[in-house]
Amino acid sequence: IGLTNPVKIYSSPTHICALKDDATVMCWGMGFNGRLGSAWSSLTNSSTPVSVLYLNGVVDLALGSTHT
User: Phi then psi for 28, rounded to 5 degrees?
Assistant: First the structure.
């Protein structure tokens, strides 16, 4: 599905995100309101992981129904 080297997987009722071993993040699911963090995700859902833009050095995440 395009996801390599995940360290942790986080889920909410609307989307899922993975913290990768290089401290970057990929998300998939419902993209409404920019939940997925990609350039086109404000209105688009994704069934495959997309890279979260401008986010590096991540150590942990928290997801809710309408936010990451």
Answer: -155, 160
